[in-house]
Amino acid sequence: MKAVSGRSPRRPEGLVGLQDVARAANVSIASVSRVINGTAKVSEVVRQRVERACAELGYVPNGAARALSSRRTRAVGAVVPAIENSGFAITIGALQSRLEQAGYTLLLANSGYDPEVELRMVTALLTQGVDGLVLVGHRHDPRLMPMLKRMGVVFVETWTLASDRPCVGFDNEKAARQITEYLVSLGHTSISTIAGRTQFNDRSASRIASMEAFLNQRGLKLHSERLVEHPYRILDGRLAMRSLLSSADRPTAVVCGNDQLAFGALIEAASLGVDVPGEISITGFNDLDYAAHLDPPLTTLRVPVEQMGAMAGDYIVSSLQGEPVAAVAEIDVSLIVRGSTAPPPARRSTT
User: Fold this and answer.
1) β-strands 75-80, 105-110: how paired?
2) C-alpha to C-alpha distance for 96 and 107, rounded to whole angstroms
3) How is domain 172-302+335-349 classified at the CATH fold level?
4) Where is the signal peptide (predicted)?
5) Which residues pair with 78 in a beta bridge?
6) What is the rounded distance in angstroms from the CA atom of residue 233 to the CA atom of residue 245?
């Protein structure tokens, strides 16, 4: 019978331990343990050093790491930019339903479009021992992907397409080009956009860049843009539309980043006595339930958000169960033409 060594078991290669955190923070292992477990008071300076070292190294407590390797929790985490956004909410609902069918529980967090917050939320979910993660978009804190790779965490990105990571989504550039091309085909040459924040939002940034590129190809320029730096809300759509309509050189068409912003734009146009689509055309994005029932009904891009959530759940479950599954799944986005768009006034008067 072999003698048992008194040394501690070797830590799996790539995992970060207390010793690594203590070395990076220049404190004792006991101090690191106190900060992580909250078992005793430590100075604010020590606490900040330890927390900074944990974040930089991507440290996750050993208990959570063991849970990840054993797959005992049967919980999946998801981090979305804004829970109150209807598109994300519907996606999450479908994701949860699919996970529950397979016996998994969903744990949800909100990042507020802040990559550092997203990193903290992911770390917290990993600390809880989630078996997998669902993320939104392709751009994250630069420390996030190395941490997931180091820990071997199953994850999938949604609302985007990328060839180098698991994802379920659509081509945002192609979607924006589709709706811009439609407006130009109607005769619009003065097109504005009411978009969500582009900083830390690769989806919105890609759509605006695509609009600008297409218009430049046709010898046109984006008339103006109004960036909504808050979550996509109806009030933000109203305020942005008010600004566009107060311009001496009004656009003849406005592309909104989602249906909520478009709803706000329609309300503001009506309140100012501006006819839609007689004087100005407005488009949305997502095709939420109410889009067809607005006055006028909203022209928008239909994104099958429920399908996206269900497919993301399928990817996570299949991966955890060792079943083959496509790493990249593209969903179809389609243009739905309704009454909020028409040729611009000058074009109609000549036809």
Assistant:
1) parallel
2) 9
3) Rossmann fold (3.40.50)
4) none
5) 108, 134
6) 19
* 8 A C-beta contact, residue 232 and residue 196: yes
The Cα 246–Cα 269 span in angstroms is 11
Residue 62 Cα distances to 21, 125, 186, 233, 277, angstroms: 13, 13, 60, 41, 60
User: For helices 29-37 and 18-25, what crossing angle results, to 10°?
Assistant: 110
Strands 334-336 and 300-302: antiparallel
Q: Where are the domains of the chain?
A: 18-55, 67-170+305-320, 172-302+335-349
- End-to-end CA, the chain: 96
Q: Are 57 and 21 in contact (CB under 8 A)?
A: yes
The encoded tokens of residue 168 equal 């379920």
Give the pair of three-digit tokens for residue 17.
């331990």
Which DSSP string corresponds to 177-189? HHHHHHHHHHT--
Q: Alpha-carbon distance 35 to 195, whole Å?
A: 42
Segment (H or E) for 81: none
Q: pTM of the entire structure?
A: 0.78
- Do domains 67-170+305-320 and 172-302+335-349 share one topology? The answer is yes
Neighbours of 212 (CB within 10 A): 17
Question: Backbone phi, then psi, for 156, in 5-degree steps?
Answer: -145, 140
- Whole-number Å distance between alpha carbons of 236 and 195: 10
Render pLDDT for 311-327 as a digit per residue (tens, 0 to 9). Answer: 999 999 999 999 999 99
Q: CA-to-CA distance for 170 and 335, rounded, in angstroms?
A: 13
Q: Among positive and negative, which fits the CA dihedral 222, 227, 232, 234? A: negative
Could you say which residues of the chain have pLDDT below 70? 1-15, 37-40, 61-72, 227-231, 347-351
Fold entry, domain 67-170+305-320: Rossmann fold (3.40.50)
**DSSP notation for 122-157:** HHHHHHTT-SEEEEESS---TTHHHHHHHHT-EEEE
**How far apart (Å, rounded) are the C-alpha atoms in residues 301 and 160?**
15
